[in-house]
Amino acid sequence: MKNRILSTFMASALSIGLCQAQVAEDFKPSSLNQPGQEYPMVNSQGYARFKIVAPAADSVRVSLGLGGKGGTKLAKAEDGTWMGTTDGPMDEGFHYYNVKIDGGKFNDPGTLNYYGSVRWESGIEIPAKDQDFYALKNVPHGHVQQVLFPSPSTGTSRRAFVYTPAGYEKGKDKYPVLYLQHGWGEDETAWMNQGRANLIMDNLIAEGKIKPFIIVNTYGMTNEVKFGKIREFKIEPFQTVLINELIPYIDANFRTLANKDNRAMAGLSMGGMETKMITLNNPDVFAYYGLLSGGVYAPTDITDKSKVKLVFLSCGSKERPDGVKKATEELKAAGFNAVSYVSEGTAHEFQTWRRSLYQLAPMLFKK
């Protein structure tokens, strides 16, 4: 019996050692680190390693993902620092995270912050095999500018970010517009910062793969309800801001093709839910619809299919791809121009939505 127990212990120890040995020690600082900061790090397999200086702490944990659930326990060293590595590789792309120190929630001072989970969260980037499509390249770059537009319905000025393609300032051409919405917990900074929408556009335009167009991001008022009570969200206040205030402002202040056939709306997650409700309520405003991990359309939802030029549905392979594919087939059977896209190996996260925008953009505003 003693020999059997010893053999079992040795086998377990060997198994643990092999698992640890499988983690490649080629860690490098994350591309989103603050200047001069070594941690957090990522390796070639997608593992992340964190180091926090908290000499008086009794417990340190890194919580990863939207909302910061789960996490990685860090171990304390003699110098008062805490270090730990994720149990397994993370999905490719961008991830929010925060640090729990003795139960309190903090941001990692080593990395940049991004607005998500209704707060500024730490961000980490796991290099993706296909990251070239959103890489910063030596190509002509468009401009992203902040605008403040009047909003009588809310009694204030509201903010939007507007991407204009390279050459817009020197030209006279008019452009189609995509109104692109963020998800719950995020705001109008998300698509250009976490999503790198401007770089995706720059690269597609430089490669001649798309017709240049303008992108507009604004706050969808999604955070007015708590997570878990999304069903209580009312679309009317934001619908008024978008349809009656923002779109007229954009058309008056930018060189747009101000008609339905040159206007699209898409959104990720809860922004997709907003997109669905607003496009169905306003069939004469948008001709292109995109739901990115944001639900689906049924053929019976749309009363006049002649007004819809494209329905684009997408999600990650770790979400519910069968539902997206099934809805797309039903739309096609009903005579709609419907396209589905599934991001392989990703879940409800920005790599799914970056890839979705990359697939959607070339389909927009086709004659």
UniProtKB/TrEMBL annotation:
Coiled-coil region(s): none
Organism encoding this protein: Runella defluvii
A Pfam family this chain is assigned to: Esterase
The protein, known as: Enterochelin esterase-like enzyme
Keyword field: Signal
Record-linked InterPro entries: AB_hydrolase_fold (IPR029058), Esterase-like (IPR000801), Ig-like_fold (IPR013783), Mycobacterial_A85_antigen (IPR050583)
Annotated signal sequence range: 1-21
TM regions (residue ranges): none
